[in-house]
Specification:
The chain is an alpha+beta fold and 973 residues long. It has 35 helices and 31 strands. The strands form 8 sheets. A 9-stranded mixed β-sheet has the order 13-12-9-14-15-17-16-18-19, with helices on both faces. A 6-stranded mixed β-sheet has the order 1-2-3-4-5-6.
């Protein structure tokens, strides 16, 4: 049999696949009456034809190559016998190394029955939509239907989602078979065929369609389920308040979430098949829906032992009055028979992302009503931003995976990993998933090393037992969050992952094995000592000498790690701390005493205190020697003056393993430029250590590593985290500084006018003496100025304090606030600027001419230096900072030296000529004039650059370094 010659040797090529499946077609034709009869069942159809069909397309259906059960690209659900119901798709296809991201599903049927029914379409759409897979296949070999699964499942519209149908005789037509091959073969899927095809499909139009406001609407699983959870919460809260007016906001929030968590967890158990009977759809059959729900909760608490079903004095008490219709409607909507949701197919991290946003709202109760509102911190931040799964995976792989690599299970069992701002638990889920997969691979590679009870045998392979998974969860996973609801959801998420591969049989077997052991007779371990509610930044010492109201103290939730995790802290701390800490300026806190406490306790809490600065310091303090810290944070700490002490702390207490920067928005909902920092805690950083620096342009970008000696950051006066440059870059930076005087020694940069009300701007014909002509940043280009069309009322009621009119009565250099490098030009006296412009002017007598400084600011050499020393690495709206402007190195001129003086005057003359040429170019009407002045500007630019090189005393090699940097994204000309 002819195999592909690619590096992986994965499967057949198109020609061989066509030939192989052609033989299956001839076989089917030969005995078609039998294959279409009731005697030929689904299991036989899969074994004789459907399995072979997908093997021919390059997929390892029988796991001949991928024997490790934790690393298989095809997961096959064998047909159910004995009348049971199947709760998983027949085939799920993945690609290495992402064995948890389904690429597409195939649902198989026997050829005797009609496969093109709305029920069958609904079934395969539900599997796929819940997993985020855009396309699916429904087949009995006789027919193959390609189904569009981008739309919310609805049985009434399911048949409209068919994209293509093939009869088995079409497989013998090369053109039609090629359509199948280049969409679903392993070769095609690895090349992104499914994503490309789904992008080609028509998109629904109109806001209502996009929001899914019709049956089967185009709406992602997370958007749809979050919207429904929000509605359920609102409905529950309002009705609980109506019938129990004494309930306060906090209690209502807890009751509504606990009830919904119970329903979601039960639906998960039902869809996984762990609970054999579907309960939610039967609530109300033996009593009221609420009574049946509470009875089920008590039964489930006896089995599962999770925080979700634990007895709640109010929720489970007899005094709570509940509107029966409201709750029954929620149960009916969520029940499997009616719901589009298949909780067996929804990835756990997607459920986490839903809950993360769900937790951003709370219930606020007044005397007569309850409303759902965003938390104050969410309103200030603009939204809740869930960390993308690929970022979680990257951080986990570069911290926990590195630490456990090559270790045995017993060694890993002594390690402790934490997220001290865990939210819904996305990072802890990533760690748990990694640990489960690592242990699974280890035992399959070393079957003799498994202790009794660690693994179970199935289909000739080893799988981790529930006992072992419980042990890993309890030993290794720790989390803290200040929000009690987040702690509950985090525990829930970890429980869902714990049970993900379990079945009714495996869980029943566990209960039978350990019914004699009191602490293990329930399926789920107690996580109350692992995932705790508390304030990771504020310890109990904040209460020393201070008496807080009970409600305020509970909200602050001070916590000592030594008390919460005595065993971990007694061993020196955590082996790894990872996560996405909150980004909040502490100056907005209403409790001034909390701000003062943090400012006094944390070294990184300087100037404008951002919580992520303090979380980084806290994580380093809680990590043990040799442990790792991995955080995604804004990248403002790299060079911002307020973060200098944080940088100093990082460099003194850790080796920076890697710094990954993103030139795109990681959080699509937020304009925040981020970076991932991986640190190794050490008492004495290695002088020769080099940090890996990665600049990513997209989530899929595998950018080449660059290496930056950590001493470069350590030796910088402000400890700025500059990026690696070509050989000699650091020496050139140092040389330019040594040859110069800082601009701030004789000049200042003044921010433009800030106004209270845009209505104070007027048309030119309305101008009176109090109105001044202004320009905005958009009017400034290199060496040129466009005329502004606005005028500002320069009076106290219109202009914010600090706008000094004297600044604008003199010539200045104007610099845009936004830019990768400074974009500057000459500004005449009596021209006013808005707050998108910095105004540079001299404050001390000096022999320098403004035009000389302008030439330096606009030069290639300074652009290169700026990108190395001051660029804030922002993908959007990179900002020019005043401190950076004042730190520009201006070549030192000895005005008593004729040669030096002549160089100064030459640069002044060239800049004046450039300003004149730019003005003529802007006014040019004919092509001849445009070409002439355009060429003149290019020539003058080159001459200015050469003069600046001479002023900095650059060698030919150093000039080539600057020119190469300009070619790779330096200042635009």
């Amino acid at each position: 049999m002819k195999m592909r010659s690619g590096p992986e040797g994965r499967g057949l090529d198109l020609d061989t696949a066509f030939e192989t499946i052609g033989a299956l077609v001839r076989q089917f034709q030969q005995d078609e009456p039998y294959y279409l009869s009731p005697a030929f069942n689904e299991g036989e159809a899969r074994k004789d034809f459907i399995d072979k069909f997908w093997i021919a397309l390059g997929w390892d259906v029988n796991h001949d190559r991928q024997t490790n059960p934790y690393e298989q690209e095809v997961k096959v659900e064998r047909p159910v016998v004995g009348g049971g119901s199947q709760r998983r798709a027949d085939y799920a296809f993945y690609l290495a190394p992402k064995f948890h991201d389904v690429r597409f599903y195939v649902e198989a049927k026997k050829p005797y029955v009609e496969i093109g029914t709305k029920e069958n379409y609904f079934q395969v759409i539900r599997y796929s939509w819940n997993s985020g897979a855009p396309l699916a296949v429904l087949t009995d070999f006789r027919e193959l239907h390609v189904v569009d699964c981008r739309y919310k499942p609805d049985v009434g519209t399911a048949l409209k989602r068919g994209l293509a149908k093939y009869h088995y005789t079409d497989y013998s037509c090369r053109e039609k078979f090629s359509q199948i091959y280049w969409l679903f073969s392993r070769e095609a899927v690895a090349s992104g065929s499914l994503g490309k095809r789904s992008e080609e499909l028509p998109k629904p139009r109109g806001k209502a369609v996009q929001r899914g406001l019709f049956p089967g609407g185009y709406q992602s699983i997370d958007e749809a389920f979050l919207a429904e959870l929000d509605e359920y919460r609102k409905s529950l809260a309002q009705n609980l308040k109506n019938h129990n007016p004494e309930l306060d906001s906090e209690t209502l929030t807890e009751l509504a979430q606990r009830a919904l968590d119970r329903l979601v967890f039960l639906r998960f158990l039902e869809d996984k098949g762990i609970e054999a009977q579907r309960c939610v759809e039967r609530f109300g059959e033996t009593g009221t829906a609420w009574e049946d729900f509470i009875a089920a909760s008590r039964r489930l608490d006896g089995i599962y032992n999770s925080i979700v079903y634990r007895h709640h004095d109010i929720l489970d008490g007899s005094g709570l009055r509940v509107d029966e219709k409201t709750f029954a409607d929620i149960c009916e909507s969520l029940a499997h028979v009616n719901s589009p949701y298949d909780f067996n197919s929804i990835p756990i991290h997607i459920l986490g992302s839903i809950y993360e946003r769900f937790l951003g709202k709370v219930i606020v109760a007044t005397d007569k009503r309850a409303t759902v509102v965003e938390k104050p911190e969410v309103r200030k931040a603009g939204a809740v931003y869930y960390t993308p799964e690929y970022i979680v995976r990257y951080i986990v792989e570069n911290t926990v995976a590195r630490l456990i690599s090559g270790k045995k299970p017993d060694q890993i069992g002594k390690m402790r990993f934490a997220d001290i701002a865990c939210g819904s638990g996305s990072f802890l889920l990533g760690v748990f998933d990694l640990l489960l997969n690592y242990h699974g691979r280890y035992y399959n590679d070393n079957p003799g090393k498994a202790r009794k009870g660690d693994c179970i045998h199935h289909d000739g392979r080893l799988y981790l037992s529930l006992l072992k998974k419980r042990e890993i969860l309890l030993n290794n996973i720790y989390g803290v969050d200040i929000d009690a609801q987040a702690v509950e959801v985090c525990q829930l998420s970890l429980y869902l992952r714990l049970l993900q591969e379990e079945t009714e049989a495996s869980t029943h077997g566990y209960l039978l094995d350990f019914e004699h052991v009191a602490r293990m007779k329930k399926l789920l371990p107690d996580l109350s000592k692992n995932i705790v509610c508390g304030n990771s930044l504020v310890g109990m010492d904040i209460l020393n000498g201070k008496v807080l109201a009970t409600a305020e103290e509970r909200k602050l939730a001070p916590m000592d790690f030594e008390t919460a995790f005595p065993e971990v802290m007694g061993r020196g701390g955590f082996d790894a701390i990872i996560g996405n800490p909150p980004y909040i300026l502490l100056q907005i806190l209403e409790q001034r005493y909390v701000f003062d406490y943090i400012a006094a306790k944390y070294r990184a809490a300087k100037y404008k205190i951002d919580t992520y600065h303090v979380f980084l310091e806290r994580a380093l303090a809680l990590a043990k020697a040799g442990g790792r810290v991995g955080y995604i944070t804004p990248n403002s700490f790299l060079r911002n003056k307020h973060a200098r002490e944080l940088r100093r702390l990082i460099l003194e207490e850790s080796n920076v393993e890697s710094l990954r920067l993103f030139s795109y928005q990681v959080f699509s909902e937020a304009s925040v430029d981020t970076s991932v920092l991986i640190l190794e805690k050490t008492e004495r950083p290695n002088d020769k250590h080099r940090a890996a620096v990665i600049c990513s342009r997209s989530p899929e970008d595998t950018a080449e590593l660059q290496w930056q000696p950590q001493r470069i950051w350590d030796e910088h006066p402000e400890n700025q985290f500059s990026l690696p440059g070509a050989r000699g870059s650091e020496q050139l930076e140092a040389k330019m500084r040594a040859k110069s005087i800082l601009l701030g020694e004789f000049a200042t940069a003044y921010f433009g006018i800030q106004t209270f009300d845009r209505k104070k701007f007027v048309k030119p014909y309305q101008v009176t003496k109090q109105f001044k002509p202004v320009v905005d940043g958009v009017h400034i280009n290199r060496y040129s100025l466009q005329g502004g069309s606005e005028f500002v009322d320069f009076c106290p009621s219109a202009v914010k304090s600090g706008s000094n009119p004297q600044v604008y009565l003199q010539p200045r250099i104007g610099v845009r606030q936004i830019g990768r490098t400074p974009i500057a030009t000459f500004l005449p006296a009596r021209l006013y600027t808005l707050n998108t412009i910095y105004n540079i002017f001299f404050v001390k007598p000096t022999g320098y001419d403004l035009h000389f400084v302008l030439g330096i600011v606009c030069s290639k050499a300074l652009g290169w230096y700026w990108l190395r020393s001051f660029f804030d690495q922002k993908a959007t709206f990179p900002k020019i900072k005043k401190d950076a402007l004042l730190a520009i190195p201006i070549p030192r001129i000895d005005f008593s030296d004729a040669t030096n003086n002549a160089l100064h005057d030459q640069l002044v003359a060239k800049v004046e000529a450039m300003l004149d040429a730019k003005e003529h170019l802007a006014k040019a009407k004919t092509d001849k004039d445009k070409t002439y002045y355009g060429n003149k500007c290019v020539a003058l630019d080159r001459q200015i650059d050469q003069l600046v090189y001479q002023l900095y005393d650059l060698t030919d090699e150093e000039i080539r370094l600057v020119e190469a940097g300009a070619a790779q994204g330096g200042p635009s000309r």
